[in-house]
Description:
Low-confidence stretches: none
Strand content: under 5%
Largest sheet: none
Mean pLDDT: 93
Structural class: mainly alpha
Number of strands: 0
Number of helices: 5
Helix content: over 70%
Radius of gyration: 16 Å
Amino acid sequence: MNKILGSLxxxxxxxxIAFGFYALVATTAITDMTxxxxxxxxxxxxxxxxxxxxxxxxGGLIVYGLATPRFRQPLLLCVGVIFAGFVVARIIxxxxxxxxxxxxxxxxxxxxxxxxLIAASRAAPAPSV
Length: 129
């Protein structure tokens, strides 16, 4: 695998895990960034589950894939496709609801993550059976 793509994939993986911890302990900071308004215990629980849980899972899959050549290609592709799905859903939402400049960072980071992870998956050796 290209060392640059592998390194960038690792940065994405560890950043997702770190962001998941941040979402766990600073939940309202995350929901303020995303313009969501969790209400009560159930709302905070849902925000933590979605942000911390999904970011830990995606980051963990990337890190595990990088450490395990046999699973590298499918795991990097899987998480890259998840990020591409976020981008598609955001584009549809922008078409339906309009654009707010606060979305630029999210869209930009998700596009970059999708491109890096999908490219890294294509550069990874195919799993041997």
